[in-house]
Amino acid sequence: MRSYFILSAFILAAFVIAASNTVSFSAKTDITQMVFMPDSAATCPVTGDAITDEHVGFRYIDKDIKFCNDGCIMAYKKDPSKYSEVLKCMPCNDDDGKAKINATHKGVKYYFCGEGCKGKFEAKPEAYLEKFMK
Ligand SMILES: [Zn+2]
Ligand SMILES: [Zn+2]
What we know:
The chain is α+β, with helices and mostly antiparallel strands. The chain folds into 2 domains: 76 residues, no CATH class; 49 residues, no CATH class. 44% of the residues lie in helices and 17% in strands. Helix 4 crosses helix 5. The radius of gyration is 18 Å and the shape is elongated. Bound molecules: zinc ion (2 copies). One zinc ion binds next to loops.
């Protein structure tokens, strides 16, 4: 119950931040600003918002991902399959992970193609994660 309240507070904070960003952005919008708009390809996978200069990063397996804020990172860590089209199975080094076959290590969820790969990861998670940090 307690963690539910904390999560709710985070979500609320994220909305408030998102709302205030929208207001300040639209107030400043003019032609010169439009030219320097951030690359539309860089969007937060959680909210879909464009990433501005102010952002936070998190590396998931072999990808450095940009997010609007820590609330988005928390949401991503809990269930990356919601926000990613492909799920990497680390032991295979292939994008054949399945959402249903997963393991959580240090609060981050990872996916596998099958129970065999899941077992390999769980036996030495740090070794696999280190391999993909490079
Ligand atoms: Zn976000
Ligand atoms: Zn596999």
